[in-house]
């Protein structure tokens, strides 16, 4: 009776993946209309389609959140965790599209497929956030990765960009191969690829049947997946690609890569390690501990030496991943919610910083050296003020989201008795203040060098030319205002986001 | 009546945030000139406002007054909780006064981007006032850190040649200490589930929250390093001379107030929260203070630049204040609190004087001056007055603080008293040498013949400071009687076990032989019972909840008194 009445795929399943459907549809539409629109001289239509698509997807996440539960034979699950990341990822996509509206025409790269790729990449990340099955996780990871490989090489006439794309592709493929191998081993040990089923099998080894040798296999599988995901979140020692790729990729793409795929990869990371492999936490805990310590320290120390703003932010993002890993290592609902909160704060402040860099980059990204920023504070007061807010938030000065995120992380860590990690982490953030302050110093405390007859493109000796005056376009102004608002809001009234993250974390951990 | 009661609970917020309102107004103003007058008006208004609690404070009541308690981040039990006691009471008017003075002092120094300068000045003031008035550890940390940013920018944008180095040094030093302090604050939160300072203090004192001696020592050290860097206590002092040499005058004047957060934090947090650890560490800290006192004085003596001379003199004086705090005697601690006020006023004044010379000659080398009294009589008069106050001449404010601290040091241990007294002679040496080289003698440099004496604005600055220095020298009990009870409560845990073996029965003579002191209020009260009362109240039941404002309908976020956790 009932089975006859129930369709094979209930309609609610589609509602549960509605944001991904919306993104796919809009991405496909962009691909379809790009050619004709350009032909009739309306090439700018696609960007607005993309913007509407991203905003619709953001709204769709809200609809998705009204229908919690599993979809498609336990492949995908809508819970607080999925929804949190859904909002975060679609918001990031929206902001990146706004950034690209100014950047792409400036670089003479204004093509619709850029927007389509951003949307498709977001589809993959959305699935990463909600996937509860290892194969879907892998496919989603690949969808998001392939989009970002292409986006990284989008300035295809710039050798650095091409190099970035190639490097990212080769190393990224390796990393996903490791991840896949890890999946195979876990499947071999437990006989399932379902997250919850794996958790059950590992919690009661006797029930799984072949309990004799599985211990080592599971650990090996966990270690291999750790490598794959460690690459995606650029944790040390899998970070070597990050600076080159971040430097070479177009600035909005770098902003995108530093926030969205990282957040999505952390979502997978959390689901696999704190749910599926929870029973073995004693074994992989030290992997996390070491990765956290190394990422913070290596990232910060290397960032001290950078002059290129994008490279500096690349190393900074490695260090920031280290802070997030500290929260991860704290485990429990506190640790998971600290990861989530920090990812949100990090997305706002990091994308904001990249938005300013992208705004000032000019044709062929000529002005991406920190020394270019000399004297900018009084020539371009508003972008400079916004950049300062983002940098102070990255340092962790109170009343910013970055500060509260750090407090939350280190509270969780201290609660879990990770005293050494906490002390080293906070001392690291004091060290990091040095390089985060460098742009502030340049903007406000240095005078722009006077270069009367500087040939374009030929810096005279060691002097970096100051950034010429630029007018800010509407979309970028919106991006900066949004990011500043979110950073301050998360720093002054973090309560609601905090409570939501904590609830979702409990959801994740206790079913 | 209801309005009066309401004002009573919100007065501290008004004081703390009035400068922030000023920032809002400044953002709307177009011209630098208008901004200057606006900032003067706001700083004067804040100064007057901050005198209200200073006068209305009831000396006999221990505990915190003018409390305001609101929810801020309920998920984390973070509260907006302000209040003052005798330790912080006078630091508020000190801050607002020196802001007002700093605005006057930087009136004419033609600043580029004047509006931004004044905005940062006001932000800095809010940060300092908030830190002095906070009774919630998280809130304290927020204000403490928030003050850091405007100060760094003030140094880095408007400073001298090596300003960037000085600014970065200042920021990074303080940030390192702050990081350690943050670990400790979070640790305490994990232990107690609150950031509420009086609750944590009472809980630790009563043994409700168990802290192992080792953990208490680590926490003590975490807080201590943060405050020692801020103070700055030898050997954490190396950021200070750079900053004094490079920063604009107004920033140094406010820095002389900001560094008071160091000894204030030690008194407020370290001594009150970790008495056993403090007692164990006391020897080392007193010796560091004495080293700083002597070392700072000797280095000051050998300086060729006036700014650096004042900087090392500051290190020396701050060392003495730390000695006063860590004698664990009521007298010593009162002297420390009093000396914090004096030092803020005198150092600020001396530095403005240097600024006046620097503005005209673009140098602060001692060898460049001489015989200044001949061309600048007003300047010389105020200089000598402030210098003598700094040396500690009787009848001037510096004497009271130094004398009380030395008395405390003698009570704690004779060796400390002897060492402190000997080291103080050094301060007379460098200050008198400086005066002789600058003020007296013949004019050796022709350029000095053209020096301009103080104008009306500058005379106003030094009239205020000069009157204050004399007034505080003559009528110290007016100030100290409001300090006594709180200091006694702070030192209560040490009553039984003084770290230097002092017999506490004889120790807390609350009224030392201060010249010209006549305080009816305290004289009538027998010393010991008052002391005891404070002790028992602080230890057994700090009872601060009873003093909290009763919840009033319509108040923001429902002031919660009883069931707030």
SSE order of chain A: HHHHEEHHHHHHHHHHHHHHHHH
Largest interface: A-B, 32 and 33 residues
> What would you call the structural class of chain A?
mainly alpha
Largest sheet properties of chain B = 2 strands, antiparallel
Radius of gyration of chain B over all CA atoms, rounded: 23 Å
The neighbouring-strand order within the major sheet of chain A is 1-2
Portion in strands of chain B: under 5%
* Poorly predicted residue ranges of chain B: 504-565
- The outline of chain A comes out as globular
- Tell me the Rg of chain A in angstroms: 23 Å
Helix content of chain B: over 70%
Count of separate structural domains of chain B: 1
User: What oligomeric state best describes the polypeptide chains here?
Assistant: heterodimer
Kindly report how far apart the N and C termini of chain B lie: 30 Å
**Helical residues, percent of chain A:** over 70%
Descriptors:
heterodimer, A: about 500 residues, mainly alpha, 21 helices, about 75% helix, globular, B: about 575 residues
Structure, described:
The complex is a heterodimer of chains A (511) and B (565). Chain A has 511 residues and is mainly α. Helices cover 75% and strands 1% of the residues of chain A. Chain B has 565 residues and is an all-alpha fold. Chain B has one domain (2-547). Chain B contains 25 helices and two strands. Chain B has helices spanning 2-28, 32-56, 86-89, 91-105, 114-133, 137-146, 148-158, 163-192, 197-206, 213-230, 239-246, 249-258, 261-273, 275-301, 306-325, 330-361, 372-375, 377-391, 397-412, 414-438, 456-474, 476-491, 520-523, 527-540, 544-547, and strands at residues 65-73, 78-84. In chain B, β1 and β2 form a beta hairpin. Chain B is globular. Residues 504-565 of chain B have low confidence and may be disordered. At the A-B interface, α18, α19 and α21 of A face α6, α7 and α8 of B.
């Amino acid at each position: 009776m009932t089975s006859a009445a129930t369709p094979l795929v209930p309609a609610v399943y589609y509602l549960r993946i509605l944001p991904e459907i919306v993104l796919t549809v809009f991405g496909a539409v962009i691909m379809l209309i790009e050619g004709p629109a350009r032909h009739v001289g309306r090439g700018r239509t696609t960007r607005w389609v993309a913007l509407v698509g991203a905003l619709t997807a953001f709204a769709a996440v809200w609809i998705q959140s009204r229908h919690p539960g599993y979809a498609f034979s336990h492949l995908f699950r809508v819970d607080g965790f999925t929804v949190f990341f859904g909002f975060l990822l679609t918001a990031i996509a929206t902001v990146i599209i706004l950034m690209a509206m100014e950047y792409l025409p400036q670089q003479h790269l204004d093509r619709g497929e850029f927007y389509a790729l951003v949307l498709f990449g977001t589809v993959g990340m959305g699935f990463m956030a909600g996937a509860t099955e290892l194969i879907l996780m892998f496919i989603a990871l690949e969808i998001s990765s392939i989009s970002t490989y292409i986006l990284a090489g989008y300035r295809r006439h710039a050798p650095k960009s091409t190099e970035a794309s190639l490097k990212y592709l080769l190393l990224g493929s390796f990393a996903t191969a490791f991840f896949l191998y890890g999946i195979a081993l876990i499947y071999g040990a437990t006989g399932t690829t379902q997250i919850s089923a794996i958790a059950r099998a590992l919690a009661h080894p006797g029930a799984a049947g072949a309990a004799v040798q599985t211990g080592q296999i599971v650990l090996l599988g966990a270690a291999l997946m750790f490598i794959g995901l460690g690459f995606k979140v650029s944790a040390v020692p899998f970070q070597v690609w990050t600076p080159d790729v971040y430097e070479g990729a177009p600035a909005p793409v770098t902003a995108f890569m530093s926030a969205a795929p990282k957040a999505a990869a952390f979502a997978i990371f959390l689901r696999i390690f704190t749910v599926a492999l929870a029973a073995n936490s004693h074994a992989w805990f030290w992997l996390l501990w070491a990765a956290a310590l190394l990422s913070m320290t290596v990232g910060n120390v290397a960032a001290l030496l950078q002059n290129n703003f994008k490279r500096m932010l690349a190393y900074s993002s490695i260090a920031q991943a280290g802070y997030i890993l500290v929260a991860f290592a704290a485990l429990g609902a506190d640790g998971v919610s600290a990861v989530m909160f920090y990812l949100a704060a990090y997305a706002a402040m990091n994308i904001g910083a990249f938005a300013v860099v992208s705004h000032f980059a000019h044709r062929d990204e000529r002005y991406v050296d920190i020394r270019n920023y000399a004297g900018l504070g009084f020539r371009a007061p508003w972008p400079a003020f916004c950049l300062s807010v983002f940098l102070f938030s990255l340092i962790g000065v109170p009343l910013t989201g970055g500060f509260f995120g750090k407090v939350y992380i280190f509270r969780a860590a201290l609660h879990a008795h990770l005293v050494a990690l906490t002390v080293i982490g906070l001392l690291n953030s004091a060290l990091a203040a040095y390089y985060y302050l460098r742009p502030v110093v340049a903007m406000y405390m240095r005078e722009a060098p006077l270069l009367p007859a500087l040939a374009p493109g030929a810096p005279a000796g060691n002097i970096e030319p100051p950034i010429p005056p630029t007018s800010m376009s509407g979309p970028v102004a919106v991006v900066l205002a949004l990011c500043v608002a979110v950073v301050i809001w998360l720093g002054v009234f973090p309560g609601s986001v905090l409570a939501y993250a904590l609830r979702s974390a409990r959801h994740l951990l206790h079913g | 009546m209801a309005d009066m009661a309401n004002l009573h609970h919100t007065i501290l917020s008004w004081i703390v945030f009035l400068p922030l309102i000023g920032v809002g107004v400044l953002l709307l103003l177009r011209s630098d000139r208008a901004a200057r007058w606006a900032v003067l008006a706001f700083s004067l208004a804040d100064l007057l406002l901050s005198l209200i609690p200073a006068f209305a404070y009831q000396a006999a009541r221990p505990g915190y007054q003018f409390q305001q308690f609101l929810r801020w981040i309920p998920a984390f039990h973070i509260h907006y909780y302000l209040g003052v006691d005798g330790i912080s009471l006078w630091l508020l008017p000190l801050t607002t006064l020196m802001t007002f003075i700093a605005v006057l002092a930087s009136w004419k120094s033609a600043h580029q981007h004047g509006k931004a300068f004044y905005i940062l000045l006001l932000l800095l003031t809010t940060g300092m006032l908030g830190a002095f008035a906070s009774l919630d550890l998280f809130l304290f940390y927020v204000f403490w850190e928030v003050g850091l940013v405007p100060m760094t920018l003030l140094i880095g944008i408007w400073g001298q040649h090596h300003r960037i180095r000085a600014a970065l040094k200042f920021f990074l030093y303080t940030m390192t200490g702050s990081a350690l302090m943050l670990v400790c604050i979070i640790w305490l939160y994990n232990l107690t589930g609150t950031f509420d300072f009086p609750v944590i203090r009472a809980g630790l004192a009563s043994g409700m929250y168990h802290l192992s001696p080792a953990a208490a020592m680590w926490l003590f050290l975490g807080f201590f390093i943060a405050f020692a860097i801020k103070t700055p206590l030898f050997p954490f002092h190396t950021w200070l001379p750079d900053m004094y040499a490079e920063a604009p005058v107004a920033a140094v004047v406010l820095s002389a107030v900001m560094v008071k957060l160091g000894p204030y934090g030690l008194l407020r947090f370290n001594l009150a929260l970790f008495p056993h650890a403090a007692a164990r560490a006391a020897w080392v800290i007193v010796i560091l203070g004495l080293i700083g006192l002597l070392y700072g004085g000797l280095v000051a003596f050998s300086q060729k630049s006036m700014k650096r001379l004042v900087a090392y003199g500051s290190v020396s004086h701050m060392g003495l204040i730390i000695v006063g705090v860590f004698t664990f005697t009521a007298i010593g601690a009162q002297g420390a609190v009093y000396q914090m006020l004096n030092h803020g006023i005198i150092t600020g004044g001396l530095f403005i004087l240097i600024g006046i010379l620097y503005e005209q000659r673009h140098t602060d080398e001692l060898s460049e001056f001489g015989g200044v009294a001949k061309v600048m009589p007003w300047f010389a008069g105020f200089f000598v007055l402030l210098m003598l106050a700094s040396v500690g001449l009787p009848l001037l404010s510096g004497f009271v603080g130094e004398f009380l601290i030395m008395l405390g040091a003698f009570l704690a241990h004779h060796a400390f008293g002897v060492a402190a007294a000997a080291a103080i002679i050094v301060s007379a040496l460098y200050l008198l040498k400086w005066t002789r080289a600058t003020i007296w003698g013949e004019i050796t440099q022709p350029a000095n013949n053209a020096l301009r004496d103080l104008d009306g604005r500058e005379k106003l600055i030094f009239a205020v400071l000069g009157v204050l220095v004399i007034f505080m020298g003559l009528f110290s009990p007016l100030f100290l009687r409001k300090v006594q009870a709180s200091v006694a409560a702070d030192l209560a845990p040490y009553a039984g076990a003084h770290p230097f073996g002092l017999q506490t029965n004889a120790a807390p003579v609350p009224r030392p032989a201060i010249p010209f002191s006549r305080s009816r209020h305290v004289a009538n009260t027998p010393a010991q019972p008052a002391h005891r009362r404070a002790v028992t109240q602080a230890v057994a039941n700090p009872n601060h909840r009873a003093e909290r404002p009763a919840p009033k309908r319509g108040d923001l976020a429902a002031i919660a008194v009883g069931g707030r956790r």
